[in-house]
Protein backbone atom coordinates (compact mmCIF):
# COMPACT_ATOMS: atom_id res chain seq x y z
CA UNK A 1 0.00 0.00 0.00
CA UNK A 2 1.44 3.37 -0.99
CA UNK A 3 -0.92 5.76 0.76
CA UNK A 4 0.81 8.56 2.63
CA UNK A 5 1.20 8.51 6.40
CA UNK A 6 -0.21 11.31 8.54
CA UNK A 7 3.33 12.47 9.41
CA UNK A 8 4.36 12.51 5.74
CA UNK A 9 1.23 14.44 4.83
CA UNK A 10 1.97 17.18 7.37
CA UNK A 11 5.60 17.39 6.28
CA UNK A 12 4.68 17.60 2.60
CA UNK A 13 1.94 20.18 3.17
CA UNK A 14 4.48 22.50 4.79
CA UNK A 15 4.45 24.95 7.67
CA UNK A 16 1.11 25.69 9.25
CA UNK A 17 -0.46 22.42 8.12
CA UNK A 18 -2.71 20.65 10.59
CA UNK A 19 -4.79 17.49 10.70
CA UNK A 20 -8.51 17.82 11.27
CA UNK A 21 -11.56 15.59 11.42
CA UNK A 22 -15.18 15.64 12.49
CA UNK A 23 -15.69 16.12 16.26
CA UNK A 24 -16.38 12.41 16.73
CA UNK A 25 -13.54 11.15 14.55
CA UNK A 26 -13.72 9.58 11.10
CA UNK A 27 -11.63 10.46 8.06
CA UNK A 28 -8.74 12.80 8.84
CA UNK A 29 -8.01 15.67 6.43
CA UNK A 30 -4.97 17.90 5.95
CA UNK A 31 -5.63 21.63 6.20
CA UNK A 32 -3.48 24.71 5.62
CA UNK A 33 -4.96 28.11 6.41
CA UNK A 34 -6.59 30.25 9.10
CA UNK A 35 -8.36 28.66 12.04
CA UNK A 36 -11.00 29.85 14.47
CA UNK A 37 -9.83 32.20 17.29
CA UNK A 38 -9.60 29.27 19.68
CA UNK A 39 -7.33 27.39 17.30
CA UNK A 40 -9.41 24.27 17.81
CA UNK A 41 -11.57 24.31 14.68
CA UNK A 42 -11.36 24.94 10.94
CA UNK A 43 -13.59 27.83 9.79
CA UNK A 44 -16.64 26.68 7.86
CA UNK A 45 -15.33 28.61 4.85
CA UNK A 46 -11.96 26.84 5.04
CA UNK A 47 -11.10 24.11 2.55
CA UNK A 48 -8.97 21.03 3.15
CA UNK A 49 -6.07 20.11 0.85
CA UNK A 50 -8.41 17.82 -1.11
CA UNK A 51 -10.85 20.73 -1.49
CA UNK A 52 -13.69 18.62 -0.14
CA UNK A 53 -16.79 20.27 1.28
CA UNK A 54 -17.10 19.10 4.85
CA UNK A 55 -18.99 20.05 7.94
CA UNK A 56 -17.11 21.70 10.79
CA UNK A 57 -13.74 20.06 11.41
CA UNK A 58 -11.88 19.89 14.72
CA UNK A 59 -8.09 20.31 14.73
CA UNK A 60 -6.17 17.27 15.91
CA UNK A 61 -3.97 18.70 18.66
CA UNK A 62 -1.68 15.66 18.80
CA UNK A 63 -1.07 14.22 15.28
CA UNK A 64 0.56 11.14 16.83
CA UNK A 65 -2.86 9.80 17.77
CA UNK A 66 -3.97 9.71 14.13
CA UNK A 67 -3.68 6.32 12.49
CA UNK A 68 -2.20 6.41 9.01
CA UNK A 69 -5.10 4.32 7.72
CA UNK A 70 -7.59 7.10 8.58
CA UNK A 71 -5.93 9.79 6.43
CA UNK A 72 -8.17 11.05 3.60
CA UNK A 73 -7.23 9.33 0.34
CA UNK A 74 -7.83 12.49 -1.66
CA UNK A 75 -5.58 14.58 0.62
CA UNK A 76 -2.91 11.89 0.35
CA UNK A 77 -3.16 11.87 -3.46
CA UNK A 78 -3.01 15.68 -3.70
CA UNK A 79 0.11 15.80 -1.51
CA UNK A 80 2.17 13.20 -3.34
CA UNK A 81 5.46 14.53 -4.75
CA UNK A 82 4.77 16.51 -7.89
CA UNK A 83 1.02 16.58 -7.26
CA UNK A 84 0.62 18.99 -4.36
CA UNK A 85 -2.15 21.52 -4.88
CA UNK A 86 -2.73 20.35 -8.46
CA UNK A 87 -6.20 19.98 -9.91
CA UNK A 88 -8.23 16.96 -8.90
CA UNK A 89 -7.76 14.06 -11.37
CA UNK A 90 -10.47 13.83 -14.01
CA UNK A 91 -9.83 10.94 -16.39
CA UNK A 92 -9.62 7.28 -15.37
CA UNK A 93 -5.87 7.25 -16.13
CA UNK A 94 -5.34 10.30 -13.90
CA UNK A 95 -7.28 8.63 -11.08
CA UNK A 96 -5.30 5.41 -11.49
CA UNK A 97 -2.03 7.37 -11.26
CA UNK A 98 -3.16 9.56 -8.35
CA UNK A 99 -4.51 6.65 -6.29
CA UNK A 100 -1.97 4.00 -7.24
CA UNK A 101 -1.68 1.45 -4.45
CA UNK A 102 -5.14 2.04 -2.99
CA UNK A 103 -6.69 -1.34 -2.19
CA UNK A 104 -10.19 -2.63 -1.59
CA UNK A 105 -9.40 -2.71 2.12
CA UNK A 106 -8.47 1.00 2.04
CA UNK A 107 -11.83 1.83 0.48
CA UNK A 108 -13.74 -0.42 2.87
CA UNK A 109 -12.01 1.15 5.88
CA UNK A 110 -12.78 4.67 4.63
CA UNK A 111 -16.40 3.62 4.16
CA UNK A 112 -16.46 2.47 7.79
CA UNK A 113 -14.99 5.82 8.91
CA UNK A 114 -17.12 8.05 6.63
CA UNK A 115 -19.53 10.37 8.40
CA UNK A 116 -21.19 12.29 5.56
CA UNK A 117 -23.05 11.42 2.38
CA UNK A 118 -20.42 13.39 0.43
CA UNK A 119 -17.62 11.19 1.76
CA UNK A 120 -19.50 8.04 0.80
CA UNK A 121 -20.30 9.37 -2.67
CA UNK A 122 -16.63 10.21 -3.25
CA UNK A 123 -15.65 6.70 -2.19
CA UNK A 124 -18.26 5.18 -4.51
CA UNK A 125 -16.94 7.21 -7.44
CA UNK A 126 -13.34 6.37 -6.60
CA UNK A 127 -14.10 2.66 -6.22
CA UNK A 128 -15.65 2.53 -9.69
CA UNK A 129 -12.70 4.29 -11.31
CA UNK A 130 -9.84 2.59 -9.48
CA UNK A 131 -11.19 -0.87 -8.64
CA UNK A 132 -13.94 -1.35 -11.20
CA UNK A 133 -17.60 -2.34 -11.08
CA UNK A 134 -17.18 -6.18 -11.15
CA UNK A 135 -14.73 -6.12 -8.22
CA UNK A 136 -16.95 -3.71 -6.24
CA UNK A 137 -19.94 -6.02 -6.62
CA UNK A 138 -18.40 -9.50 -6.38
CA UNK A 139 -14.88 -9.74 -4.93
CA UNK A 140 -14.50 -10.09 -1.13
CA UNK A 141 -12.32 -7.50 0.58
CA UNK A 142 -9.09 -8.91 1.99
CA UNK A 143 -7.59 -7.23 5.05
CA UNK A 144 -3.81 -7.08 5.74
CA UNK A 145 -4.31 -9.81 8.34
CA UNK A 146 -5.93 -12.15 5.82
CA UNK A 147 -9.50 -11.72 7.01
CA UNK A 148 -12.14 -11.50 4.28
CA UNK A 149 -15.26 -9.35 4.41
CA UNK A 150 -18.06 -8.72 1.88
CA UNK A 151 -17.39 -6.86 -1.39
CA UNK A 152 -16.76 -3.12 -1.36
CA UNK A 153 -20.30 -2.43 -2.54
CA UNK A 154 -21.67 -3.88 0.71
CA UNK A 155 -19.38 -1.72 2.84
CA UNK A 156 -20.41 1.40 0.90
CA UNK A 157 -24.11 0.52 1.11
CA UNK A 158 -23.84 0.12 4.89
CA UNK A 159 -22.00 3.44 5.16
CA UNK A 160 -24.61 5.20 3.03
CA UNK A 161 -27.46 4.00 5.24
CA UNK A 162 -25.52 4.98 8.37
CA UNK A 163 -24.92 8.57 7.19
CA UNK A 164 -28.47 9.00 5.93
CA UNK A 165 -28.05 8.32 2.21
CA UNK A 166 -30.95 7.01 0.16
CA UNK A 167 -29.53 5.31 -2.93
CA UNK A 168 -26.69 3.16 -4.18
CA UNK A 169 -24.48 5.32 -6.39
CA UNK A 170 -22.28 2.35 -7.33
CA UNK A 171 -25.13 0.79 -9.29
CA UNK A 172 -26.44 4.08 -10.67
CA UNK A 173 -23.06 5.35 -11.81
CA UNK A 174 -22.16 1.97 -13.27
CA UNK A 175 -25.34 2.13 -15.34
CA UNK A 176 -24.41 5.60 -16.54
CA UNK A 177 -20.90 4.44 -17.46
CA UNK A 178 -22.31 1.43 -19.30
CA UNK A 179 -24.83 3.62 -21.14
CA UNK A 180 -22.03 5.95 -22.19
CA UNK A 181 -19.92 3.01 -23.35
CA UNK A 182 -22.79 1.65 -25.44
CA UNK A 183 -23.41 5.07 -26.97
CA UNK A 184 -19.75 5.38 -27.93
CA UNK A 185 -19.76 1.86 -29.37
CA UNK A 186 -22.88 2.62 -31.42
CA UNK A 187 -21.31 5.83 -32.74
CA UNK A 188 -18.14 3.95 -33.66
CA UNK A 189 -20.19 1.32 -35.55
CA UNK A 190 -21.97 4.08 -37.44
CA UNK A 191 -18.65 5.63 -38.42
CA UNK A 192 -17.29 2.25 -39.47
CA UNK A 193 -20.32 1.66 -41.70
CA UNK A 194 -19.95 5.12 -43.23
CA UNK A 195 -16.22 4.59 -43.84
CA UNK A 196 -16.91 1.20 -45.45
CA UNK A 197 -19.58 2.74 -47.69
CA UNK A 198 -17.28 5.64 -48.67
CA UNK A 199 -14.47 3.22 -49.45
CA UNK A 200 -16.80 1.11 -51.61
CA UNK A 201 -18.01 4.17 -53.52
CA UNK A 202 -14.44 5.30 -54.10
CA UNK A 203 -13.56 1.85 -55.40
CA UNK A 204 -16.54 1.91 -57.76
CA UNK A 205 -15.51 5.31 -59.11
CA UNK A 206 -11.98 4.07 -59.69
CA UNK A 207 -13.22 0.96 -61.51
CA UNK A 208 -15.56 3.09 -63.65
CA UNK A 209 -12.73 5.43 -64.53
CA UNK A 210 -10.45 2.54 -65.51
CA UNK A 211 -13.20 0.97 -67.67
CA UNK A 212 -13.85 4.27 -69.39
CA UNK A 213 -10.18 4.74 -70.19
CA UNK A 214 -9.98 1.20 -71.51
CA UNK A 215 -12.99 1.84 -73.80
CA UNK A 216 -11.40 5.01 -75.17
CA UNK A 217 -8.15 3.29 -75.97
CA UNK A 218 -9.99 0.46 -77.70
Provide structural commentary:
The chain is an alpha+beta fold and 218 residues long. The chain has eight helices and six strands. It has helices at residues 6-13, 73-78, 92-98, 104-113, 117-130, 133-138, 152-163, 169-217; strands at residues 17-22, 25-32, 41-42, 57-59, 140-142, 148-151. The strands form two sheets. It has a four-stranded antiparallel sheet with strand order 2-1-4-3. The chain has a two-stranded antiparallel sheet with strand order 5-6. The radius of gyration is 26 Å and the shape is elongated. The model has no long low-confidence stretch (mean pLDDT 76).
Give the structure's gist in a few sentences:
This protein is an alpha+beta fold. It contains eight helices and six strands; from the N terminus they run H-E-E-E-E-H-H-H-H-H-E-E-H-H. Helix 5 runs parallel beside helix 8 (169-217).
Low-confidence stretches: none
- Level of helix content? 40-55%
Q: State mean pLDDT (0 to 100 scale).
A: 76
Rg over C-alpha atoms, rounded to the nearest angstrom: 26 Å
**Treating each run of at least 4 consecutive H or I residues as one helix, how many helices?**
8
Total strands: the figure is: 6
Largest sheet: 4 strands, antiparallel
Q: In sequence order, what are the helices and strands, one letter per element? A: HEEEEHHHHHEEHH
Strand content: 5-15%
The gross shape turns out to be elongated
The computed structural class is alpha+beta
Placed side by side, the strands forming the largest sheet appear as: 2-1-4-3
Head-to-tail CA distance between termini:
78 Å
Amino acid sequence: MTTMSAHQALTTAGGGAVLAHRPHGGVTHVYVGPMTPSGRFIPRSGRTVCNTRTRRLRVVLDPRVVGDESLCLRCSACLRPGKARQAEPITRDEHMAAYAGVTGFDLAYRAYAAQTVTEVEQLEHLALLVVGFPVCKKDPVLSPTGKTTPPIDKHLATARVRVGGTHNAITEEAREIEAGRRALAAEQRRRDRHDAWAEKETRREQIGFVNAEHTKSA
